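Input record (one chain):
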Amino acid sequence: MGIFENAATVIHGTLYGATGETVTYDLNTPLSGGLSSATFDAIQAESRQSVLNDRGQLTKVKTKDFLIKVSQFDDVGITQPRRDDIITAEDGQKWQVASPATGLDYFEYSDHKQVLFRIHTKKVKA
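The corresponding structure, as predicted from the sequence alone:
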């Protein structure tokens, strides 16, 4: 492992230790083996983009994102996040995996080595 790869691992561990939480990830459609839910370590984040609204004005859009290691998905047999899955944060708030209004896909890789998923969500109304 190179010095920069080691530094990235240390920085991620430090960031998770400072701001991370355990979330429950509920699948919209259970896997063939019956798995319907998993528990992951995650970091809450947000994305901010600007889009043109229907009147041609620039509007700022903010989404709640969850950063979750790809390897955690692999460990339980999930290949990638899926639209309409539900993430429940430690505080009990529920977030639905969804594409933001900016036209981005509902998830993307957060880094060039594809170690972290950045999963875009919208709040589930109670």
